[in-house]
Amino acid sequence: MLSGILDGIFNGISIGSVLLLAALGLAIVFGLMGVINMAHGELMMLGAYTTFVVQNGFKQLGGVWFELYIFVALIAAFVVAAAVGLVLERGVIRYLYGRPLETLLATWGVSLILQQFVRSVSWQFVVGLGLFCLLYFGATTLLARRANWQQIRSWAIAILLPISAGIAIAIALVAGQMYKLPFTQPWFGAQNKDVTAPRWLRGGIPIGDYQLPSARLFIIGLTIACLIGIFLFLQKSPWGLRIRSVTQNRSMSACLGIPTKTVDALTFAIGSGLAGVAGSALGLLGSVGPNTGQNYIVDTFMVVVVGGVGKLVGSIVAAMLIGTANYVIGANVLQPLVAGSPALSSFFEFFATASMAKVMVFALIIVFLQFKPAGLFPQKGRTIDA
User: Fold this and answer.
1) Number of H helices and number of E strands within the chain?
2) What is the DSSP string of 341-382?
3) What pLDDT, on the 0 to 100 scale, is given for residue 72?
4) 272 and 80 in contact (C-beta within 8 Å)?
5) Which residues of 135-285 form beta strands (DSSP E)?
6) CA 87 to mean position of chain CA atoms
7) Where are the domains of the chain?
8) Of 37, 121, 243, 364, which has the maximum CB count within 10 A?
């Protein structure tokens, strides 16, 4: 019985570590810009798929190289997710600052686009998208050099957009007919993909009758390393100082010469990169699919809300509590403790599934927020009044 409880708590902490990695980026972005990014889960998904791609590449090398692929995958996941987040901030979110409802709807639409992207992406799709970007953005960049660009901008976009899209689609379709299946077949599809952990992460460390899985220990260690890295970056680096300054008082920071738009873009990229790292870690716990991010995005938001917006310690405590509660309740770990009470036993058995465990945890969070609406560690001082 004790072994089962320890196993449940340890597995819950490892899941909480993934939630914390994702919530770190979300808390940084929301704390600085007030943006509710509904596509944050899809950035986790992209990190997981990046890990899958890197794994397949290192499988071709084999030997000792495959045992080291996870470190390359973590870096690649951070870079890919950060790049997508930067494009999202520059292309969509920067036009919607101060409009939370529009931002929520726009990022929700982006999340649906990214889900369909991983289902449908193929060489044909990439060629078409690349041609469209080259034609459209290349033409608008050249026209932007004209002195009367602001006067013709609307007309130019209205003309260039359909022409670029038409040319790109036509060439992609022709190329698809020429190269047949190898060119048009989706890379990932709708089915889940399995990520194979290196051999040194497949075992465990025995402690008496209990064994600590190496993969989950690695995830906990990765989370601690990311926490230390983010703390040092925010506290010791010049850009970390600028981020903290903009978070405290955006107007005064701009008056002092801090490039607030650059700070916004950098912060969003870092937050998105952390989501990619969380997705890479998530791949070690199970299969990867288009809906991977959706399974964790609500829990991630709950970590930010329960912990207190902008509070690192609060996010850590909330992630561990929510992750552990979800696993312990869903796996019915408490059943041996309440076996003597038929009512409690039936209660926990009813919630002994992943989906019903989330329902119970959310109900507990709702009750908790009635008493502490600002979270475990509410903001104090001038920041909360800003």
Assistant:
1) 16, 2
2) -HHHHHHHHHT-SHHHHHHHHHHHHHHHHHH-TT-SS---GG
3) 92
4) no
5) 204-207, 210-213
6) 15
7) 2-121+186-385, 122-185
8) 37
Contacts 24+ apart (CB under 8 A), 330-334: 330/354, 330/356, 330/357, 330/358, 331/8, 331/11, 333/4, 333/5, 333/7, 333/8, 333/9, 334/5
**214 token code pair:** 């190496």
pLDDT the model gives residue 249 = 79
pLDDT one-digit tens code per residue, 201-242: 887 777 766 777 888 888 888 988 988 988 888 888 888 888
Report how far residue 263's alpha carbon sits from residue 240's, in angstroms, rounded to the nearest whole number.
9
| Residue pointed to by tokens 């190329």 | 175
Token couple for 139: 């033409």
The two tokens of residue 379 are: 């903001």
Mapping DSSP to helix (H, G, I), strand (E, B) and coil, where does residue 231 land?
A: helix
In order of 63, 359, 360, the CA distances from 330 in angstroms are 38, 10, 10
Q: How far apart are CA 100 and CA 180, in angstroms?
A: 45
